[in-house]
């Protein structure tokens, strides 16, 4: 942890609470915020490094409570794309998947991770978090425990209902994970195996988190035609499970469904008025990022990807799958809105950046058959961006006082260079401040900063983070409010934002003058 002292003078300070900024200085020492505002010389040691920050703004380090950096933090602990957008705390284990139970991973996943440089395994959550700390991450790191990962650990039949013993085993594993430092539970109800869990199963595991006043982060069961029903289910889980609910990357997809966000937010507000603790988060983009397997029906995935590949070889099964995929895709916006961003088979790399509709025209077959062919030829490993969200719905959500900003991304390293990752990996937080707060004035800048700092910290009950106050951990971002700009695009994602001058993590400058310093003082945050 940083032991040096720094006096940052002449700043416009946003404390993270949503209050208007004030002019003043920040004194950092031994990893803590020692003073803010008007600071007298007697308050600081003579060895403190002084910096004139005139023209810069200061805010608490941004907290990304929805990340998928579970293994990436071990492979790329420098976390450059996080630091360069002002993120100082990253929370993984979302959408039902966490790295805490590697015994449930497939051999192909292990081989892929080994090829990226992951050499060691771990036995449980505590051991995993120790290995993250040993990797010396540049940012603070925390994790949720994924319901889907736990479910895979207790059954070899992901598509089957769990029996009483399996449910008890799952709850025991969750309790152990929470005792070892996890900050809550996540569920991914639109993906295998979470899609096979009924509401009663989810209520049972939610109660485990509820007993410890922890969060249940829920990727809804449907973000398209049954969006409102999925919102109702999440509320029911929170009510019956007596748990704090966080609706993950909340969105409604497909033009046929646009306009439903206002109704969904009203349902959340009604539940809050009835005593249910509910929040939501979002990333400030109109395209989602997922796997092309999202077009497949759940029943086709009961035996995993290998089972789905066998079904695609069967004419009758393939016909049924195609009908579902066509309907699902039209509800979510059509084939022209699905763009290939990553496909592992080298012979298909030239398709990245093209829509399924464009590829189907090139090869001369219907889009749905083209998509299924690609899944077969690439062994199901095709990632996509799906342009499916409306600007009005996004703005409705971001205007809601209990919605926080996330990236829903990961730490991006050299293994991603052949792909076109979603620009949210590089610019989510600066985009919120620059585009939506400064340029579009959807929210005041102070409120936008609250959505990235104290609000997400309070949702997870993270102590000492998210507010600039004396005694708090010295996670601080300095930025030029006028020059701040996200620069990553869907076609050219590898562009870091402009305007982030410095990022302090636990009192040490991990970024200074817009460049990495090499200091990596991030801490693993464990729930006490």
Output the number of helix runs. 17
Biggest sheet record: 9 strands, mixed
Kindly report the average pLDDT value: 94
Approximate strand percentage:
15-25%
Give me the secondary-structure topology:
Blueprint: E1 5-13, E2 22-29, E3 32-37, E4 49-52, E5 57-60, E6 62-64, H1 72-75, H2 80-83, E7 87-92, H3 107-115, H4 125-134, E8 140-143, E9 145-146, H5 147-154, H6 164-179, E10 184-188, H7 199-210, E11 215-219, H8 227-241, E12 244-247, H9 261-273, E13 278-282, E14 287-291, H10 304-312, H11 315-331, E15 338-343, H12 356-363, H13 367-377, E16 382-387, H14 391-398, E17 403-405, H15 424-439, H16 445-450, H17 454-460, E18 476-479, E19 500-505, E20 508-512, E21 515-516
Parallel strand pairs: 1-4, 1-5, 6-7, 7-8, 9-10, 10-11, 11-12, 12-13, 13-17
Antiparallel strand pairs: 1-2, 2-3, 5-18, 14-16, 15-16, 18-19, 19-20, 20-21
Helix pairs in contact: 5-6, 6-7, 7-8, 8-9, 12-13
